[in-house]
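For concreteness, we quote verbatim a single protein encoded this way:
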Amino acid sequence: MSPPIATPRSRALGFGLRKTRQERGFGLRQLARATGVHPAELSNWELGLRVPKVEEVALLLGQLRVDVTERERLFELAEHAREPNWLEKEMPDAPAILTTLAEYERTAVSIFSWQPMVVHGLLQTPDYARAILAYGGSPAQLVEQRLRVRKIRQTAIREYRAPECSFLLGEIALRQPIGGREILLDQLRHLLELPRRLAVRIVPFGGDFHPGLNGSFAVLEYSDLPSIVFLDQHRGSAYIYDDDQVADYKSAAKTMASLALSADESRAFIEGVITELEA
């Protein structure tokens, strides 16, 4: 069984419960004892990994003596935390890890991403994405399903209230001939056609060690929730919520940004790679 995933709604409820508990001076185990809730269960609620029932939320808030306004806000979150998000409604068969990621992206105020080896999924052309998703003989139906999810995610970050995006790509991502020369060329031309607000910057190959050599990562920030880090690996993905670890990744993001070419320099760099490939 897959581990539970903290969705944006469940996480908002959990963050509100934890913040209220801490403001009232209650330790987690102290509140658990006072309400008869198992500490592990209360911890899962605060992390957004499990969603408490409305009556369970009422039990906690009664013990914490929360004011009417905040109580109603948390009740509303509890009532709606289990509802499917916008992508789940449109594609009920989509994997939970993808629908949750799409919701996190759509509700963020800013997204920073570092991808050293391949072009970020939100920037990929269909053919480039298909060449990646089809690797290993994945069933065609699954590949097309994931392509549809990727297309919806791409559309979402181009909306009026879309997050501010900063995409850093390693030079290798521009030269790795995924799908072949023509598909790569089409992908590179697509990068030049993206809206300027989807800032694409290149980190050239070479130089000393930097944190980006440890792999790709994304930092997503929100107006009313703590930031999170998303890690996407070969055999799975993970979210990081721990404040200290998130701070480390934010520091790494600043380092990577300092190593990247400017937006104009990056465009010129991409044009240069296209010229090389066309020669």
Remarks:
- The chain has a mean pLDDT of 90.
- The radius of gyration is 21 Å.
- Residues 8-80 form a domain with the 434 Repressor (Amino-terminal Domain) fold (CATH 1.10.260.40).
- Strands lie at 110-115, 164-170, 198-203, 217-221, 228-233, 236-240.
